[in-house]
TrEMBL record:
Keywords: Kinase, Transferase
InterPro entries, A to Z: ATP-NAD_kinase_N, Diacylglycerol_kinase_cat_dom, Methylgl_synth, NAD/diacylglycerol_kinase_sf, YegS/DAGK_C
Protein's name in the database: Diacylglycerol kinase
GO cellular component annotations of the record: cytosol
Domain DAGKc: residue ranges: 6-136
């Protein structure tokens, strides 16, 4: 009978090298690996051509017991694309602008030492993953996706301004894109049509908070097996968006159709004309049709 290998566990870190930080990530990772009895970590950098998917697969191929996504929500999403449905946990070192998954998990996004301590020595929990299908292409997201106005904001955000002022650059893009025409949309939840009219945006959430700690989806939970859907259809005229804002602040509990909330395990969005499309803040081109479904508890998080 052969003895089991006693080789120490190894963590892989997938880091976006374009994120500038004022501390030594390698040193921090090595310190916590040694403190927890882990072996030498695996260091993998993302590229413009491959923002994390290939590196996550490489980490699994090299036998990593844990994969740390060190970057923004884009890096996190790419790593999750590979780890979802496996037993290998993901940890977060939030280095991005929004760090929305980390915030929704209750992490202090300024405490890098604490994040690494949780990654190497913390506890695990499972969260839902949402699979978004557009034609033959399937991608996952963890925080929020959308078609229409919210995706146009992501497409039109000034990257230089984002470097200087962070998430406030999204506000600038949002204001610039307030004028615009609604698109006729059909929204089906769990196979049943719930909306068939002109809208500006359909947003689908796996958790509730977005930039600036604004809560778009008040009832969303990362592990409830449900999608939260918000349909934005501002009334005509310059004051139309005020009704949307009131609907979000009132958490959709009024009869005003400027904002309508729904929940379900799956959603299909059909649009008369192509609209911008985003997944966790990454602009993913334009689409007229997208289907999304939740995979409950598909991803293990260590923190």
């Amino acid at each position: 009978m052969t003895e089991h290998s006693t080789a120490p566990k190894r963590a892989a870190i997938i880091i976006n090298p374009s994120k500038s930080v004022d501390f030594d990530v390698r040193e921090l990772l090595t310190k916590h690996s040694e403190a927890n009895g882990w072996g030498e970590p695996i260091w993998l950098e993302t590229t413009k051509e491959d923002p994390g998917v290939g590196q996550a697969q490489q980490a699994l191929d090299q036998g990593a017991s844990l994969v740390i996504a060190a970057g923004g929500d884009g890096t996190v999403r790419c790593v999750a694309q590979v780890l979802a449905g496996t037993d290998t946990p993901m940890a977060l070192l939030p280095l991005g602008t929004g760090n929305l998954l980390a915030r929704n998990l209750g992490m202090d996004v300024t405490d890098y030492d604490g994040a690494m301590a949780g990654a190497l020595g913390g506890t695990t929990r499972t969260i839902d993953v949402v699979r978004a299908r557009q034609g033959d292409d399937e991608q996952v997201f963890l925080v929020m996706a959308g078609v229409g106005y919210d995706a146009t904001i992501m497409a039109d955000t000034n990257s230089d301004l984002k470097e200087k002022v962070g998430w406030l650059a999204y506000v600038d893009a949002g204001i610039r894109n307030l004028p615009g025409k609604p698109v006729k949309a059909t929204v089906k939840i769990d196979g049943k049509t719930v909306v068939h009219r002109g809208v500006r945006s359909v947003m689908v959430g796996n958790c509730g908070k977005v930039q600036g700690n604004v809560e778009i989806f008040p009832d969303a939970k990362l592990d409830d097996g449900l999608l939260d859907i918000a349909v934005l259809a501002p009334h005509h005229g310059k004051l139309g968006w005020i009704s949307v804002l009131a609907g979000i602040i009132g958490k959709g509990r009024t009869k005003d159709t400027a904002v309508e909330y729904f929940q379900g395990a799956s959603v299909e969005i059909l649009l008369e004309d192509e609209q911008d499309y985003q997944l966790d803040g990454d602009h993913s081109g334009q689409t007229k049709k997208v289907q999304m479904s939740v995979s409950p508890g598909a991803l293990t998080i260590q923190m």
